[in-house]
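step 3/5: co-fold with histidyl-adenosine monophosphate
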Amino acid sequence: MYKAPRGTSDILPQEQGYWRYIEEKASSLCQLYGYERIDTPAFEDARLFIRTIGPGTDIVEKETYTFEDRGGNPITLRPEGTAPICRAYIEHGMHNQPQPVRLYYFASIFRYERPQKGRFRQHQQFGFEALGSSDPTLDAEVIDMSWQLFASLGMGHLSLLLNSIGCKLCRPNYLERLKEYYSQHIPRLCPDCKQRLKRNPLRLLDCKKPSCHDIAESAPRSVDHLCPECKEHFENVIRHLSLLGIPFEKSHRLVRGLDYYTRTVFELQPRGEEGAQTALGGGGRYDDLIEELGGRPTPAIGFAAGMDRIVLNMKQQGISPYPPETFRVFVAYLGEKAKAESVKLTAELRRAGIAAISSFGDRSLKAQLRHANALGVPHTIIIGEDEVGSGTVILRDMTKGEQKPFKRGEIVHVLESMKL
Ligand code: HAM
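step 4/5: write tokens
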């Protein structure tokens, strides 16, 4: 028996309501903030991601789906959505548009991770990016928007964690302080952190192992080592967030798992689970990324939320999406002439915008009504030979079990007015 590959899942019809609900809320939020939709391919040149996410990151080292296509080109299935947006920004000369350019996307993301609750090998992200300004009000806008996303979904009990990890001018000095500090604790570090100390010291701070946690708590803080420009920027972000009434907590251990970030980084986590790998979304500034990819210097900031985790969290919080459209009509028939009439009527109903399902085969009326009940359809139209002869149909209310005849020529209209 074939099964969906490990770390992937099917989104069955009964689950779709959650996904459409999130998509609708997210799209109208973007509309409200002036963001426009963009779709990029599910795979890109592998070098795009190595360069942007960082060669020493877990994602690039262990998690990408990378292969050569039949033409010998190195390909990677999209492991995140920001680098492709930057590639598109450059490729389509978006620097010629009014800045910042505000874009949003829904995208399947592929990471070869160890599957567990809320962690999959294919997941779906909703993200938005504002490219072309370093103004801290834009940081506040993007963070506000992230916060409002969850508010519009009715989700509470969330913490917004905020940090600044400085820029290419002040970070090297900070990393030196961090390495000095960690060098005194090497024997107590987990094997991964011993590697991080050599290759990616910033990531030492967000190690999830309890033994490393204590060491990280007392580590030097990036916010204490910012250059004057980054310090002022961070203060302004905080000022604007306070102005907007967004509750945030400063977290000096928040560094994010991708190497392209500069200055502001932030994450939204279920309250009480801060520090665990359960973030519902995260983002930050990446002021050097577009230039590194060959574009002009273009500061930018963005955010992405994991839709699979949002669905899990909505269920935990008992939040129901919109109920599915229930007004549907089942058309049952008895006999050959009635069958033809039922096919015709089903088509007429659909053309009038009424969801309709025709019966099939050669079954008793009882079997057909059982089928309609199993589908949860509120109304069934019954057409027998007599009805064909008299130009009528029977409309049965499946909940009450009551039925009434109507003229064939009027039934579409009757159902239309019932739907209103
Ligand atoms: P990220 O934190 O790697 O950031 O992913 C964003 C969100 O996707 C996470 O907070 C989480 O909810 C979800 N997620 C990540 N990995 C998985 C997984 N294996 N299974 C299920 N959900 C997952 C980014 O990808 C950045 N591109 C965000 C960004 C946009 N930064 C700036 N702009």
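step 5/5: annotate
Residues 205 and 216 are 5 Å apart (CA to CA).
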